[in-house]
Structures are given as C-alpha cells and as structure tokens.
Amino acid sequence: MTLAAPEIAPEITAAVADASRIRTRAIDRIAYANDASHYLLTPDAVAVAADAAEVGAILRGATASRTPVTFRSGGTSLSGQSSGKGLLVDVRQGFGRIDVLDGGRRVRSQPGATVRQVNARLLRHGHRLGPDPASEAACTIGGVVANNSSGMACGTVENSYRTLEGLVLVLASGTVVDTAAPDADALLRDREPALVEGLMRLRERVVGNAASVALIERQFAMKNTMGYALNAFVDFDTPAALLAHLVVGSEGTLAFVAGATFRTVPIRPAIATTLAVFPTLDAATRSLPALVSTGAATLELMDATSLRVGQRLAGTPAAIHGFEATTQAALLVEYHADDVDSLRTLAQAGARALAAEHLLDTAVFSSDPVARAAAWTFRKGLYASVAGARPSGTTALLEDVVVPVARLADTCGGLQELFARFGYDDSVIFGHAKDGNIHFMLTDRFEGAKALGRFEGFTDAMVDLVLEAGGNLKAEHGTGRAMAPYVRRQYGDELYDVMVELKRLLDPSGILNPGVIIDDDPGAHMRHLKTPVSIEPEADRCVECGYCEPVCPSRSLTLTPRQRIVVRRASTAARERGDGGLVAELERDYDYDGVQTCAVDGMCQTACPVLINTGSLMKRFRREDANPVLSTAWSAAATGWGAVTRAGSVALSAADKVPLPLVRTATDAARAVLGTDTVPRYAAELPAGGASRKRLGRVVGAVGVEPSAVFLPACVGSMFGPASDGIGATAAFTRLLERAGVAAIVPDGIDALCCGTPWSSKGYAKGHATMTARVRAAVRTASRDGALPVICDASSCTEGFASTLRDEGVQVTDAVAFAASTLLSRLTPTPVAELLALHPTCSSTQLGIDPALRAIGAAVASEVRVPDAWGCCAYAGDRGMLHPELTEAATAPEAAEVAGWGADAHASCNRTCELGMTKATGESYVHVLELLERATR
After folding, report:
1. Which of 405, 401, 432, 221 is nearest to 334 (CA)?
2. Backbone phi, psi, residue 266, to 5°
3. Which of 574, 587, 746, 880 has the smallest C-beta neighbourhood within 10 Å, fewest atoms?
C-alpha cells in the first residue's frame, strides 16, 4: 500500500498563491519528515512559503481548519521540534535575505539564511553574530531564534536572547508585527488587544511571585532552553519587547519568526588555541574552575570515545594521536583578545593553569590558523563524526544538559555510571564545559520493549541526576519532544501553568507545533522514534545532520543529499515490510528528483563531517540503471573520442550560425522522443565549437627550453569554443608559458584523451575503463613515468585526471595553481579590470586551489569579489544542458548578488562553469587565465 496523500484543507490551498508549492507526493513528505533529531513524523503536506504575508494566510487557514503547522528551515534541530504531522512549511527557500546595518554593528536576516552566510557578510566589517553554534554551516537564523541558540563561546551573554534587537513575527491569527518598529506597542494594542492584555497579566503574575522570580533567576543564570523564556517576564515590561523575547526559544509553538535583527559582536582578531589531553574525564572536568577564572573564551570537552573517533579521521589535531584512547579526555582551550599583548597575558595565565595539571603532554598555545582550523573542524563535526561511527541500523540520540560548573565533574561521573547501569557502552560526552553545558550521545535501535524500557529508565535517572545538581534539562538544543514531559518537573506547577497559559494566549487553537515544549503525556518522548534501516555503504553512516544541504545545487529544485538518503531509507524500509506500492511510487519519482538532478559535484562531501559523497551513490544508481544502447554508444565514444569531440565542435559551430529558435526546436523534439536525461537542450549561452587540440603540436610554451611539465588541455575547451571576446583557456595558458619562459609537453594523441568524468558521472563503466587505460598509458610516456607534473586547464578536468592518475605516481595540478606558483613571479601583469566577479568552482574548492584563483584575480583586477552566495553552478559537464532548471535554481542567489555589482569583468576556471554563469547572469564569463594573458600583453 502507498503512503496515502490526505486531503488538504481548502483554507490551506487557498492561502498559497502557487499550487505547485503545495506538495503531497510521498517523496516530498518523506524527504521533509527527517530532521537531525531521533524523532520521525511525516507531514500530510509540505508548503513552500513565499513571504511573511503568505505565512500569515497559511496560519489563518490552519486556524480555521485546525491543521497543525510546523516550520522547517535548516532542519538541524536535535530534539524533534522541526518535524511534525499536519502541514510542514518550508521557510528556507523564500527567506534568505541578509541586510548588514550600521557598518556591521547590527544585522537583519530572514530565517532561511545560515549563521555562516550571515557571518560571511559581517566578516568584512569586523563583526559576527553572538550565537556561535557548532552547526553554523547549516543551522539557520529561524532556528537560532526558535531554539535560543548559543554555542562554544557566547555563553549566556551573547546568545540569541541577549543580542536580539527585534523580530518580525507572524502570529497564529495572521497578524504581522515588527517588534523593533517605533509603533510596535501601539500596533499590537490595536490589532491584538486581548493578547497584549494577557501578556501583561501574566507578567504581573510572574514578577509578583518572589519564589517564581528566584527560580527564574537561578535557572536562567545558566544556559537554559527548557520550556519558554520566562526570564522575559522579569527582563521586559513593554508588550513588543516582551513578546519578542518570549518567542526566542519557543521552537515554533508561539509564532513564526519572519525576520530578526541582532546586535552583533566585534571579532577579536588575536587568538591562541591549544588542545590539552588529560588522563581521565574526571581530571579534565575538575580543572575547569581554574581555567574558567583565567578568562578562557572556550573550553570544549571531549571524552575518550570522541578522541577514538578523531584518531580515525584524517586531518585531526596531532595532540589526539599517538596514544590508545581509553580513559582520556581533552579540552580545547582558546583565548580571544583585541591585541597581541592582551592575548599573551591571557594565554600565559592559561598555560600556568594547565601546567598544574597532569597532562599527557605539555599544552602549547598557538596562533597558527591552520592548526586552529583543524581543531575546530574536528570539534564542530564531532557529533556527526561520532554518530557516523555507530553500528548500521541504529539511531544516534543526542541530549544536552547544563549544571553549575562546580558540579560538572560529579555530573559527568554520574552519567558514566548511568551508561554502565543501562548498558550504553559506546556513549560519548562532549560539550561546552566553560558553561557547565555537556552533550552526551546514546546509540541503539530504539524499538521493542527491552530497548524502549532501557531508554525510558535511563532518561528518568538522568533527569534526577541533573535536577539534583541544580541544572537545566536542556541547555541549547531546545525542549522539543525529547524533554516536553519533564518541563513541569523542572519548573514546578506554578511556572508550568504560566507556560500553558502563554501557549493558549498566542496559539488558542493549538495549531503551532503541537507536542513540542508543552505536552502532558508522560510518555510523549517515547513516541515517534526513528528506527533506521541499513542502506548502501556509500551513505549508510549518514546521521541526517543536514550540514550538506546549504552547498547542494539542487536544494531548491528537488532533493538535498540528506533527503536523497532519507528517501532511500524509506524506500528500503517499505520494501522490507512488503509495501510494494510505496516502493514503486518512490522509485518512480526518485529517478528525476534524486538521480537525474544530482550534479554529482562532490560539494556535499566537503560539508559532511563523515565525508559522505552522495554523488557517488547517485553515480552507482546511474551505473546500475544505464541504458544498454547508450552504454554501448558511450563505450564507442571512448574508443573514438577524438572524432567525437571534433564532431561536437563542428555541430556547435554550425548551430551558432542558425537562429536559436530553430536549433532549440530540433533539440526539444529529440528530448521529447529520447528523454531529457539523454539529449541536451541547445541554449543561447553555448558558443561555437573550439579548435582541435592536436594543432598545439608536441611542445608548447617557450622555444628552446627543456619542458618542465606535461600539459593536458581539457577536451571541454576543444568542444566548446571561447567567448566571443576571448581566446580560451588553452591558448591563454600556452601564451603565458611562452612569456614566462616555460615549456610543457603535450602527450601524443591528445585529441583522443579525456579525464573520464563524462563516463563516470553517467555511470558508463566500460567506456570509463577504456579512457582510463588510454590516459594512463599516454601520461606515463609523456611524464617519463611521473618525473614531470601534469597540468590541466579546466578545474573539473584536473580533478578527473587526478582521480584517474591517483595510483600512477603522477602529480596533477591545475593550470591556475601552476600559474600562481610558477608563472606569476615571471610576469608583470597590469590590471585589465576595475572589479572582477570571480566564480570558484566545486572542483577548484575540492582541489584547494581557490587561494591561487584569487591570487590570479588580484593580479588582473583592482578589486576581486567572490559572491557571498557563491555555490556550485550545477552545469556539471552537460547536466546543465540536460536539465537547465538545475543550473537556474543553483545559480539564482549568486546571480542576484552579482547583478548588483556592476563588475567590468567576470571569470572562473572551468569552461562549462563559465557557460553556466554566463547563462545565469547574462554576463560573459571567461577563464581567469584569459584575463592574465590580456594583463601581460
């Protein structure tokens, strides 16, 4: 049986202007059902909201029809608050605007922008957001406000609540109010008089009760996201400010946050970091009071399990290697200051405190940015890395608690006793020890009476432990569903009743995220737990954290990497339980949404803490589903690739002379017959064909000079000619070699060589093997068995050749990197542009050559800008021609940003990416080496 699509209330459908933005297919509902938590609730429908006004209409319709509503942006929440039944509203796609105010001292953002995106805009102004969650690459402003996010350094002083200036709120009634507006109080009194009266009445009730005030002041002196932000009743006495701060941490249960304005904090540029390894967790936690007193900005705790996982990962800090992690624990200690002298004083105090401890090795503070980046990459990805190491078919469940710092050592010891008592042998403890805030993770298959009974018993015992220590059951991850049954226990009947009344006041129909924060069912936290199944090994270790989503080109068109994986899990589960109808429906829609529209660019792997490349799985599916006829044709193409590229070039040149509508009509007709994933669509950005590579001859560059490299010009530059005002990357590079006095060998039979990406990306294994063998043989000869490095002039092809030649002992580098390291110092460029809009590629990012790309840009232009909204263009060879809608969706944010610059030059480092950006912006993108060639004439 299939996952039935329920009837959507007419009030809801009428509220959404475009019916295509209401999605009820099984694949859409399943894709959105999963967030980063251990809960799973499948919505009846998904609505992609366009703006605040439309959200207001949706909420009015939901109130009238009693339809539950859950808001979803980043989906990184860990307590079940971003998934729900009823209607799930996507507020990421249409809500990404960021406005920097007052020279960076303030910032206004919509809820769909990530913390990293906001901080990227603030960086050039020397400021950042106060909240600094580890998930900053993926978590969004909506969630930051809804969960009162904090993080590693901000504590309770610079969190969302304390740095908030105002919110644009959409109430359940549909009323939209900007709480920072001068007339916000008057507007609220006019439009929502009962709400204002009720809020002020609740405030009087709270502040008039000395016991309530004392409890609030004690619990909110620590990090606290348990229940509602009752401290707002003590801190604010005007309706708009009170409402705004009550909504902070309310997890979508009181109102929708359509925008937030924050006071930012200055970036303190002087930083010193060390990773201190202690013999035991107890020793690490007992060192905290002394370290806290030194003014440490961060004190991040990692237990032995964390260290064991880190020892298996590449690029982790040297301090955690060289010993068998059994009982040890580490503290990542960092100091921030405005200047070097102040930093030295702080670091010396920290060094003295650590010298008094029995460490495995001396802790040395360093300001090396590379070492710091390695330490923080490990720490920020720790949850997902540890969870990714769990046994297949189990769920990772992450909790976070806070206790006074003086009680942390005993609390950690108590947790370890509970792990042992309840049989959670592989549990892990880590967190923000400076604030007494720790996270712990359990892994199990949470189904069956035994497993569920064990989990329930552990949770009750953990609650006792934390409350007896005077702590909070949730510090920064939000109450969600996980701790909703325990809110009354932490606060008592009086304050819990205040929360219930607050919920009724703002959401009288109970439509906003029901079951989150307020739930009197004592077993609510035991329902809707995920029970994952094992899937293909390429993706099985995914913990559904969502870190991959912001970098995915198809995120606003079809599915993200996380969604591709969760749909695969749902399909596998349906197959195992015999639900053939659902399997058939999911597989039918997955072909386009999952497989065809994946750019297989590998950017998801750059963001994934456990290094999953979902594109590898999509390539496998393409390989397994390869059309035999097409596979044979592509195998033949590999055999005669020189002729194929020349035929393609001739065809493009011919098409360039024919009116666009005629050519497009012909390709559209072929696509209708043979399929959109088979025949490319001709587009205006396509140039005439390029020149044959064999015309280059045997040696390029300076005459009479011993060749110092092998040059493999990319076939993409041969098939697609240069822009109308350019000469192409290959010609530019050979001229630069000549001017720099450098020569390179071109392999024999160059026209027949290719990096192999066209075959690997499409899943044609036989053709790929044919091309791989030919390339390896040609390069072995030309490079004298690896004595000479190999250079390619298109970044994606460089990446492809690097993969093909990985085991051949050959160094492969991109022409951009070679130009920056070897040629630039021998040339005297004169800028040819005032402002250069520079587009790195997914391959240049993964190859690590973006600094070289910027260096070349700086040599040819007075100012170089890389868009804050930069991302993979998804042209992906011919993917952008097969599915133009993919490139259009992927490039829309970047194109919008570039359009406002008025740049007089536009460049990238890969021909098809240049075509993709030309299509997106209407500006002519060329290879950056073409600009360098112009600058050195």
Report:
1. 432
2. -65, 145
3. 587
**For residue 82, is it left (φ>0), alpha (ψ between -120 and 50) or beta?**
alpha
Distance CA 230, CA 670 (A): 64
Q: How far apart are CA 802 and CA 793, in angstroms?
A: 13
Query: Shortest CA distance to 681 belongs to which of 920, 872, 879, 891?
Result: 879
332 three-state secondary structure: strand
Strand ranges (E), 722-805: 743-745, 790-792
Say which residue the tokens 């106060």 belong to: 130
Q: What does the chain come to in residues?
A: 937
Give the side-chain half-sphere CA count within 13 A for 751.
18
What 3-state DSSP class applies to 397?
Answer: strand
| Cross-strand pairs, 69 | 87, 512
Instruction: Report helix, strand or coil for 714.
Output: coil
Contact present, 114 and 138 (Cβ < 8 Å): yes
Handedness of CA 193, 195, 197, 200 (dihedral sign): negative
Distances (CA, A) of 192 to 168, 171, 175, 223: 15, 10, 8, 32
Q: 163, 74, 151, 150: which is closest to 112 by C-alpha?
A: 74
Residue 62 clears pLDDT 60, i.e. is over it = yes
Q: Taking the CB of residue 25, how many other CB atoms lie within 10 A of it?
A: 17
Is pLDDT of 3 > 80? no
Tell me the mean pLDDT in the region 56-66: 97
> What are the φ and ψ backbone dihedral angles of 696, each rounded to 5 degrees?
-65, -25
Q: Would you give the distance in Å from CA 128 to the centre of its chain?
A: 18
Range among 162-166, 372-376, 424-428, 720-724 with highest mean pLDDT value: 162-166
Count of other CB atoms within 10 angstroms of residue 808: 16
- Does the model's pTM come out above 0.85? yes
CB atoms closer than 10 angstroms to residue 894: 22
Alpha helices in 861-927 (DSSP H): 879-882, 884-899, 911-921
Which residues make Cβ contacts (< 8 Å) with residue 167, sequence separation at least 6? 145, 178, 179, 180, 244, 247, 248, 257, 259, 260, 261
- Answer whether 84's CB lies under 8 Å from 515's CB: yes
User: Which three-class secondary structure state does DSSP give residue 506?
Assistant: helix
Task: Give the model confidence (pLDDT) of 507-546 as tens digits.
Answer: 999 999 999 999 999 999 999 999 889 999 999 999 999 9
For 658-714, what is each residue's pLDDT tens digit?
Answer: 787 877 777 777 778 777 887 888 788 888 888 999 999 999 999 999 999 999 999
Spatial distance between the Cα atoms of 291 and 331, rounded to a whole number of angstroms: 10
Average pLDDT over residues 498-513: 98
Q: Choose among 512, 515, 454: nearest CA to 482.
A: 515
Judge whether 795 and 814 are in contact, CB under 8 Å: yes
Q: Which of 726, 782, 731, 733 is nearest to 753 (CA)?
A: 782
Which H/E stretch holds residue 108?
strand 106-109
Per DSSP bridges, beta strands 437-444 and 428-432 are: antiparallel
CA distance 244 to 163: 12
CB 262 within 8 A of CB 115: no
Q: What is the DSSP string of 529-597?
A: B-------TTTTT-----TTGGG-TTTTTS--HHHHHHHHHHHHHHHHTT-HHHHHHHHHHHIIIIIIT
Residue 607: CA count within 13 A, CB half-sphere: 26
Exposed e or buried b for every residue in 126-135, given b needs 16+ CB within 10 A?
A: ebbbbbbbbb
Q: Which two tokens stand for residue 581?
A: 């109808």
Residue 101 in 3-state DSSP? strand
Confidence of residue 1 (pLDDT cuts 50, 70, 90): very low
Helix (H) or strand (E) run with residue 162 in it: helix 160-163
DSSP conformational letter for 40? B
Average pLDDT over residues 89-93: 97
